[in-house]
Design goal:
binds S-adenosyl-L-homocysteine; Double Stranded RNA Binding Domain; small RNA 2'-O-methyltransferase activity; about 950 residues; single chain; Hen1_Lam_C; RNA-binding; magnesium; six-stranded antiparallel sheet; RNA binding; binds magnesium ion
């Protein structure tokens, strides 16, 4: 059981995370002070002092030579003040009880009153009180104010953590055993036996603040009866009155010492807690307390009093009516701290507990965003990562941290097929399995799979998810699996009334094994307290996590589209940026008009279910700069109220029966799915890699020693070629994009200079800025020319011009040209838009794969272009491709023409009259002889 104690800083981190702010200050100390014997050491020595700010208090350390020591010292001071134990060795219940008695007695020491412990605030009020209760404080505030006390209670009985009533009974026992503390016959007032120091009244006087002001604070009432709505109420605090009295009054309890207090809900610095009256059975019969919790009868009675909504929210057992209010004494100030708790705060807390709610909250888009159902890439994922979300969910439901385990394996050729299919289903959706989209598979692909296990605090397994999906990267596998669990949980929370027997089956569909007993134990309170279905006012198309069956069918809504078609539209995988506003309207009543949510810029990835169905459906019909409006039925009431913020009170009083939501949206920007992204998703290895492999094969076959890459872009081909052993000695690239060329130069330069692999035979490399529709004599007569995925970026006549120029003037021995096969697009699109059936595909022409494409050719168009060029310039041409298969319809995903120069003896290699023209600008050159002199620009 003995674990090594955590370092103080680690412990503070565990408790406060990023809320703990350390600041190091340098303090100069002169050497002669510290080492008087050393006359030579005249240099002042640096020491460091650490200031630590926590939500609850700020401390500073003594100066230390090492920053780290200063930080630990500050952490230790903070821990002592907060009563957090640094030693992990758990005390026995008896030891804990002894310590608890000591701790409570310590609060009654005279010097305690002048400390800034929150409990001191209660004493100050007690010593100002005239009459019967002079010097008395309510026992329940002790646990709420002192972390050490609650930790000790937990050590005595672990269940005390989740049950304030039990914690109180433990305290009662300790108080009764204490020789110096008394407890009242009625209620739970405690005070010190004997007389207090004479200094107390004057001390209290000194600390007393003069202002007697009434502060009105918004709070939230949780009625015990589930049929009564949660409502807001206003409390009034003043300096002349003990704040607990005001709460007691609102709860209709005569004695404020009978008010029990929950742990802090939400942010640690919020002081937001639930207050409720101690169950009647408990109050007077304090002698029979030990029997109380073992008595069946009292347990049944308690059960009836359980306030399920409040309990679910706080994770503790709360009984009877409860008030959630932000008030109390803090470490930071001796004044009473209080702040409003709006009804929307409650709905946000509630939303935050749902598996998908935290995502919506952090994206500040409760009505727009949905937790995506697919994880594609880190860069496309917006908002908090799935793994983080799952951890938060577990923490909020008081479960252990999820345990991830990943496996790596090499797919053989057969399993690669499986790997590829599951990859598709992960990202987009299924293409019929017999459609062999993936033609050339690499022999072995290493891939990752991830499993996750979620256990209760005690370590009993609750659910296990073994995800079939394979990922190229380990971190993606973890994110993907975490998302899968979250998606499943989201679905589950939307149908809490699911019979237990369906639970297993329901998990199976997601490859999730559920341990029903443990699962229900953990979610039991949540289950019975929240029937989210009931919160729904209108019928809404069921939120389905299954992209393929409902995403578009149910989303058939009418959008009013505004503005001219700009031709730039999103496609699956695009990351788009929109602005939107959601307004609550009433069918007949014009006065109902509340803006619930609005965002100027909201980014998300299309095709992953990252927003509500209707919104995604609408965005699919817009082009950039167009706007639209559409209506949807009301979603869950708690969503509306969480989104509403300030006007929640008004809205909560409205009958929402004939209301609906109006969304106004505008498409601001589309970041195209890089073709590569789609290709990566659908093909392994990615098409770009397959194209490189294809080129390498032709290079080595033809023993080419020089290569020019027409439209080299940022040099992906040239760069990858350097990773292969080839016959090449000279390489060159041309492009019109200066920016891409500069990137290419950087990459190639560093690779060639480090000279690690097979690129040692490369003796010359150069990059040129220029259009490949112009001839430059420096690139004449190269052995091989490549032009991969470039021609479709030019107008068709330019593409033809390039064909003419390259074969008539550059005259490479071999020319490889690749371009997308237009006929293949439906497969790419169908796999991303599964519900669009074929008839629709034919009716609406397929979109190009990239909005920068000026055209995309069918196989026939491409072959016509290539055949006539070849014939004209004495080349023979062969057609091939990558991705899919050439033998079955609709051919390869990317079509390739390989031109070979006919070696007709009569035709001598000659340059035309343009032989000296050099329109290209060389922007970088490298030669193995003088690699450092040759770089220009
Ligand atoms: N071949 C690269 C880049 C393809 S993207 C690859 O496979 O990764 C198309 C490239 O063609 C862009 O870098 C673009 O700048 C370039 N390009 C378009 N028109 C061009 C022209 N007329 N001359 C030279 N390059 C051109
Ligand atoms: Mg392209």
């Amino acid at each position: 059981m003995m674990r090594p104690a955590l370092a103080p800083k680690a412990l503070i981190h565990q408790k406060f995370g990023s809320q703990a702010q350390y600041r190091i200050e340098e303090v100069l100390q002169h050497a002669e002070n510290s080492c008087p014997g050393l006359a030579i050491a005249q240099q002042p020595r640096s020491l460091y002092k650490c200031y630590l700010d926590l939500p609850e208090l700020s401390v500073s350390s003594d100066p230390f030579p090492r920053k780290k020591d200063a930080e630990h010292a500050a952490s230790k001071i903070a821990m002592e003040m907060l009563g957090i134990e640094s030693k992990v060795n758990n005390p026995t219940p008896q030891e804990a009880l002894d310590e608890l008695i000591l701790r409570i007695s310590y609060f009654f020491a005279d010097e305690f009153l002048s400390s800034n412990h929150p409990l001191a605030g209660h004493f100050k009020v007690a010593f100002k009180r005239i009459g019967g209760r002079f010097g008395m404080i309510p026992l329940p505030v002790v646990t709420a104010c002192d972390a050490k006390v609650s930790n000790l209670c937990k050590a005595i009985n672990p269940k005390a953590e989740s049950d304030p009533v039990l914690a109180l009974s433990i305290l009662l026992k300790a108080v009764r055993m204490s020789a110096s503390i008394c407890i009242s016959d009625v209620g739970f007032w405690i005070w010190k036996l004997g007389t207090h120091s004479a200094a107390i009244p004057s001390l209290v006087e000194k600390l007393d603040s003069a202002s007697v002001e009434n502060i009105h604070v918004e709070a939230v009432l949780f009625p015990l009866l589930p049929e009564r709505d949660v409502e807001s109420l206003t409390l009034c605090f003043s300096d002349s009155q003990y704040y607990m009295d005001e709460i007691a009054q609102k709860l209709n309890v005569k004695d404020s010492s009978c008010i029990l207090i929950s742990r802090i809900i939400g942010k640690a610095s919020s002081e937001m807690r639930l207050y409720f009256s101690a169950p009647k059975l408990l109050s007077c019969s304090s002698d029979s307390l030990d029997n109380f919790f073992s008595s069946k009868e009292s347990n049944i009675n308690l059960e009836k009093m359980l306030n399920r909504r409040a309990s679910y929210l706080s994770g503790q057992n709360i009984y009877g009516d409860a008030i959630m209010v932000q008030v109390g004494y803090t470490w930071k100030s001796s004044d009473l701290f209080c702040d409003d708790v709006f009804l929307s705060s409650y709905y946000r807390l509630l939303l935050g507990k749902l598996p998908n709610g935290h995502y919506k909250l952090l994206r500040e888009a409760m009505l727009g965003a949905e937790l995506p159902t697919a994880y594609t890439t880190r860069s496309n994922w917006k908002g908090p990562a799935p793994k983080t979300l799952l951890s938060v969910f577990c923490r909020q439901h008081r479960l252990s941290e999820p345990i991830f385990s990943t496996r790596t394996f090499d797919c053989t050729e057969t399993s690669a097929e499986i790997c590829y299919v599951s990859k598709k289903s992960k990202l987009l959706s299924l293409v019929d399995e017999d459609e062999n989209v993936n033609g050339e598979l690499e022999k072995s692909i290493s891939a990752f799979r991830c499993e996750v296990k979620i256990c209760s605090k005690k370590g009993d397994p609750i659910i296990e998810c073994s995800c079939d999906d394979t990922y190229r990267k380990e971190c993606d596998a973890i994110q993907g699996t975490a998302l899968k669990v979250l998606s499943w949980l989201t679905r589950y929370f939307e149908q809490l009334d699911m019979p237990v027997k369906n639970l297993l089956e329901f998990g199976l569909a997601y490859n999730i094994s559920v341990y029903p007993q443990a699962f229900l134990n953990e979610f039991a309170i949540g289950l019975s307290s929240y029937d989210f279905q009931k919160e729904k006012r209108c019928t809404l198309s069921p939120i389905s996590m299954n992209l393929s069956n409902s995403k578009y069918e149910n989303g058939m809504i009418h959008c009013n589209i505004d503005g001219p078609d700009s031709g730039v539209y999103p496609s699956p995988g695009s990351v788009i940026c929109i602005s939107y506003a959601v307004v609550l309207l009433h069918k007949d009543d014009d006065t109902v008009n509340e803006i619930l949510e609005s965002k100027d810029e909201f980014e998300f990835e299309m095709g992953t279910g990252a927003v509500i169905n209707e919104l995604e459906f609408c965005m699919n019909q817009l082009t950039v700069n167009q706007s639209a409006q559409f209506h949807v039925d009301l979603p869950f009431k708690h969503l509306i109220l969480a989104a509403a913020g300030e006007p929640t009170k008004r809205i909560s009083q409205l009958s929402l029966d004939d209301c609906f939501l109006e969304y106004s949206v505008k498409l601001l920007q589309v970041t195209e799915p890089l073709e590569e992204r789609i290709e990566q998703a659908l093909f392994s290895p990615p098409l770009s890699k397959q194209r490189v492999e294809f080129a390498v094969k032709r290079i080595n076959e033809s023993h080419a020693s020089s290569l020019v890459d027409f439209g080299c872009g940022s040099g992906s081909l040239l760069n990858l070629l350097l990773d292969h052993t080839t016959t090449l000695g000279t390489i060159a690239g041309v492009d019109i994009s200066r920016r891409s060329l500069i990137r290419a130069a950087k990459v190639l330069h560093s690779k060639l200079s480090t000279n690690t692999k097979g690129q040692d035979i490369i003796s010359c490399a150069a990059l040129y800025d220029g259009s490949i529709t112009k001839f430059d004599s420096r690139l004449f007569g190269f052995d091989i020319g490549t032009c991969l995925e470039v021609i479709e970026h030019m107008e068709e006549d330019e593409a033809c011009l390039f064909g003419e120029i390259v074969l008539s003037l550059f005259r490479p021995k071999v020319l490889i040209v690749s371009t997308p096969n237009y006929e293949y697009n439906p497969i790419l699109q169908r796999s991303s838009f599964p519900s669009q059936d074929n008839s629709e595909d034919k009716a609406t022409p397929s979109k190009f794969r990239n909005h920068d494409h000026k055209f995309e050719w069918t196989r026939q168009q491409f072959q016509q272009w290539a055949n006539s060029l070849a014939a004209k310039h004495h080349y023979i041409v062969e057609f091939s491709g990558v991705g899919g298969s050439g033998d079955s319809e609709p051919g390869f995903a990317s079509q390739i023409a390989v031109f070979r120069r006919n070696s007709i003896p009569s035709e001598k290699l000659r340059m035309s009259n343009q032989e000296t023209s050099q329109p290209y600008e060389m922007i970088w050159e490298w030669s193995s002889q003088s690699p450092f002199l040759s770089e220009s620009n």
